[in-house]
Design a protein that fits this description.
heterodimer; A: alpha/beta; 8-stranded mixed sheet; 33 strands; 25% helix; elongated; B: 293 residues; alpha/beta; 6-stranded mixed sheet; two-stranded antiparallel ribbon
Chain lengths: 646, 293
């Protein structure tokens, strides 16, 4: 045994006053009595029945000496050398990817990694600073440079496996930044696959790879897609099942549409190969398809998390557009050529402004005293100012010039040869970007086409009338109209993907912009039934809770609006074959980081606990008289109250 | 100096000693003996044998049974009341002296005996000079003051002899059985043997075990060297609440053993505190114990 603070042994000198006081206390007072006859018989009987009574006087002194000795042992900080980490800083990185859910370790690979990390923690010197990083698709530093073992344990125990793809690189960058600032750091990566890591890790100090997992056997669903059959009544559903194990596997595949099983098949999947199925009896009116692999008849499957797949089937719904104005043949033709639009024509006085994704005001505006509808707007050739812009006059014979050829609304369009008779003179409002201006404006650029977002909607303004130009004869015209309409009314269906990968972020701003009216409550219902409320007042509106494979439902003001699926289709994660690091690991300094280390394992805590126990025993023994008296009083009071009650 | 006031003596006049054993003397007293003597009170019949007094033949019984029977009568005889006071050094201790208590108690019981025309014989356990001396004998009411003075004159005498030796010496001065009242603290290991000797002589034993309050309930807490006033020996004691509680239990067990000893031998045992009023002892406890009535 060694001692970190051997000077503490000087405290043993405290034993001397204890012995001295004890010797002084041994003096007794002389007390004459008539006879010691009764006392002699009493003591003789007592000693016969309880021989330890003679030791009782010495016991307190012995306990006090033992207390001092235990305290001194705590102060001198004894330690023994044990194999373990002896670095000043330790960084623990836990791979949270899908393959870490494999059950070839108990309870799973990540659980085994946690257990090993806790074992390392138990043998860690008290001074070591520990950082815990959870490496999911977005790494999280759960604890940074802490010596509190309780907190470290809590952090480690809080790490759970996800359905995400392995992404250790960002976690290694964080570890690198932390290790750079620490003397003598060591990094441990807990993962099942070494081969996904870079060849050289930019980590200061030493590092080691703690590989978990031992078995490669796993079958998974790697694809679930569908396409409508030519008659449009049914769907062809494609399913790909993969076997990454070393032996053939037999599984039963169940296919369900809207919760009803429509197909079941027993499939044989050879080792290291894929099997595909096509099922063509799914009704095209179905809204959701699920595929599940039942437990294996033959072979092992150590990762059940990838045995299910989901697909959301969306029915196309046309974008409703209102065309308000006297009518324009070229404009109407351009709109009709665009698929997925439902165009309604109105005159200015008959339009009520409800339930349209886009309202096109062509040479018209809402009647005075009437507000614009809450939808997105395309205003063509406004005659007067509106709440969104000011019309200050007319520009004669403007020459169109595209300001930013890279803007997606006007990219690749050629408008310079377009002839325009006149256009409304509008100064670009603050919310808008000018896309096309009058090239010959002398004072300030006069926009001929500008667009932007304001008051929760998208607005585009074409300052000139189509029929007072030859723009319809320009090949750019239908393209420009198409781009403007798609930007103004993209169709909510296309803005939310039908499927996402686990951990992928979903942005909902564009989706909400396409909706008529405003939304007060926006929530996403996850596959487990829990709901996450999103704040519609902040931008961007982000939903990042795509950790669970399954079907998610977006609800607007309590009503179901649209659904999407999250699937863990990752061949790399479903291939759970563990890979070990090469025999020699090299750090940047060329030192072998796999060498075992000896670390001091202190025992002062045990000595402190022992001192406390001895102190308690000594206190109890010293106060035996008082405690006996209290007990006796209590006993007699209880007896008296019993008598009274009788 | 009077040990008692007039009122107390008057109350004592109502008491009398109870004799259970066949202890008798040739003198006439007020106590009934089991001898079938020549008094007028008929007791029983027995068959006539050659040599019986023919004047005692019951002719009525002969007429009925045609057999000769003689009458037997209760004979009233005097009893010897022995009062043995332990005057070892341990008896005279503290403010509630056990010796003074024994003196007063013996004087009171002796007074009752004198009034009952019994012969009262007083003796200290340890005679002055440790030489055996006969009992002081008293008889009749005329001897009351002498009895009181004799009781009061008994003082402690240091001795190295055991209680057995002293009791043997006193027994040598007793010829006929009687009531033997012993007033002692029993602080000697040979008392049981001594009392057995006494009982073997046919005496009716009344053992009055007198203890002082600080022997019954010592108020000691701490580290002590207890010094024995009799022999100068000492013992070391660490006394605390638990120790005192155990001591009281030990005392109770010790007295219980003495009670059993006396009960087995048809003797009366009375453990008393030297602080107990004599009236309580004489008029309550002794009557309950069957010593007085």
């Amino acid at each position: 045994m060694n001692f970190l603070n051997p000077n503490g042994f000087w405290l043993l000198l405290l034993l001397a006053p204890i012995v001295l006081l004890y010797l002084l206390k041994l003096r007794r007072d002389d007390h004459p009595v008539s006879s010691t006859f009764l006392w002699q018989t009493f003591i003789r009987d007592r000693q016969a029945n309880a021989p330890w009574q003679r030791l009782q006087r010495n016991l307190l002194m012995v306990l006090q000496m033992l207390f001092i000795a235990a305290l001194v042992m705590a102060v001198v900080r004894p330690f023994i050398w044990r194999e373990g980490i002896s670095n000043d800083a330790l960084i623990l990185i836990f791979d949270q990817s899908l393959s870490m859910s494999a059950t070839d370790e108990q309870p799973n690979r990540l659980g085994e990694a946690r257990r090993r990390a806790l074992e390392i923690l138990d043998n860690l010197p008290d001074e070591t600073l520990v950082t815990v990083i959870a490496a999911g698709s977005r790494p999280r530093t759960l604890l940074s440079l802490s010596r509190d073992k309780t907190l470290i344990r809590q952090s480690i125990n809080s790490i759970q496996a996800t359905a995400q793809v392995e992404n250790l690189a960002p976690a290694l960058q964080i570890a690198s930044a932390i290790s750079d600032r620490q003397p003598n750091p060591h990094t441990i990566i807990f993962s099942d696959r070494w081969d996904t890591l870079p060849e050289r890790l930019a980590l200061k100090g030493s590092y080691s790879f703690d590989q978990v997992g031992s078995k490669p056997d796993n079958q998974s669903i790697q694809a679930l897609t569908y396409e409508p059959q030519p008659d449009g009544k049914n769907l062809n559903v494609f399913i790909k099942v993969s076997n990454s194990g070393v032996s053939e596997s037999s599984r039963r595949l169940i296919l369900a549409a809207d919760g009803v099983t429509v197909h079941a098949a027993d499939i044989q999947i050879p080792a290291h190969s894929d099997t595909t199925l096509v099922v063509n009896r799914i009704s095209s009116s179905s809204q959701m398809i699920e595929a599940h692999l039942q437990p294996a008849f033959e072979g092992q499957d150590y990762l059940p998390a990838d045995d299910a797949a989901f697909a959301v089937i969306r029915q196309p719904s046309p974008v409703k557009i209102a065309l308000v104005g006297p009518g324009d043949y070229f404009l109407e033709t351009a709109l009709r050529l665009m698929p997925g639009l439902e165009i309604s024509k109105f005159t200015a006085d008959e339009f009520s402004g409800e339930d349209f994704a886009l309202v096109i005001y062509d040479r018209s505006l809402p009647e005075s005293g009437t507000a614009f509808p809450a939808s997105n707007l395309l205003i063509i050739s406004p005659a007067q100012s509106t709440e969104f812009f000011d019309v200050t006059g007319t520009v004669e014979l403007p020459i169109p010039q595209i300001i930013d050829p890279a803007d997606p609304l006007v990219a690749g369009l050629e408008l310079s040869g377009t002839s325009i008779l006149d256009a409304a003179q509008i100064s670009t409002p603050g919310w808008a970007n000018p896309l096309v201006i009058d090239a010959v404006s002398t004072v300030a650029p006069v926009p001929l086409l500008f667009a932007g977002e304001t008051a929760g909607r998208r607005i585009a303004v074409l300052a000139f009338s189509i029929n007072r130009s030859d723009l319809p004869l320009n090949v750019a015209f239908p393209i420009m109209i198409s781009r403007l309409v798609r930007w103004l009314a993209p169709g909510s269906v296309g803005l939310v993907p039908t499927a996402l990968a686990p951990g992928e972020i979903l942005l909902l701003d564009d989706f909400l912009l396409t909706l008529p009216g405003s939304v007060n409550r926006l929530s996403v219902i996850k596959p487990d039934g829990s709901a996450e409320m999103l704040n519609t007042q902040q931008t961007p509106i982000v939903f990042a809770g795509t950790d669970q494979p399954g079907v998610y439902h977006i609800e607007l003001d309590g009503s179901a609006a649209i659904s999407f699926a999250v699937n863990s289709f990752s061949a790399s994660e479903s291939d759970i074959t563990p890979s070990a690091p090469p025999a020699e690991l090299l750090t940047e300094g060329g030192q072998n980081s796999a060498a075992s280390q000896l670390a001091p394992h202190e025992g002062w805590r045990w000595a402190a606990v022992l001192a406390l126990i001895i102190l308690m025993i000594e206190w109890l023994l010293y106060h035996r008289v008082t405690l006996s008296r209290l007990l006796s009083m209590l006993h007699s009071r209880l007896g008296a109250s019993e008598l009274k009650s009788r | 100096m009077m040990l008692f006031d007039e009122a107390f003596l008057r109350r004592l006049e109502h008491l009398s000693l109870i004799y259970r054993s066949a202890a008798r003397s040739r003198m006439q007293g007020e106590r009934r003996s089991q001898d079938r003597g020549g008094s007028v009170e008929f007791a029983d019949f027995r068959p006539y044998t050659l040599g019986d007094d023919f004047r005692r033949i019951d002719w009525n019984a002969y007429a009925r049974l045609e057999k000769l029977f003689i009458k037997m009568y209760q004979e009233e005889q005097q009893i010897n009341l022995h009062l043995l006071i332990d005057n070892s050094l341990s008896m005279d201790w503290g403010s509630d002296s056990k010796l003074i208590y024994a003196q007063r108690l013996a004087a009171a019981i002796g007074y009752v005996g004198l009034l009952g025309l019994d012969r009262v014989r007083l003796m200290p356990l340890i005679s002055p000079g440790n030489t055996a001396q006969p009992f002081l004998s008293f008889s009749g009411k005329r001897s009351v003051l002498q009895l009181f003075a004799a009781c009061k004159s008994i003082s402690t005498v240091p001795t190295s002899g055991s209680a057995l030796e002293h009791v043997n010496a006193s027994l040598s001065f007793t010829s006929r059985p009687g009531i033997f009242m012993v007033f002692t603290d029993l602080f000697d290991y040979s008392w049981q043997t001594a009392l057995n000797r006494l009982l073997d002589r046919g005496h009716q034993l009344v053992l009055i075990n007198i203890l002082s309050p600080d022997e019954i309930d010592p108020q000691l807490e701490g580290e002590y060297r207890l010094l024995d006033s009799e022999n100068g020996s000492f013992i070391e004691l660490t006394s605390d609440f638990e120790t005192l509680h155990a001591y009281r239990s030990h005392l109770a067990n010790w007295q219980s053993e003495w009670a059993q000893f006396c009960s087995k031998r048809s003797a009366a045992y009375l453990p008393v505190s030297s602080r107990l009023p004599l009236e309580d002892l004489l008029f309550n406890q002794m009557q309950t114990a069957g010593v007085l009535k």
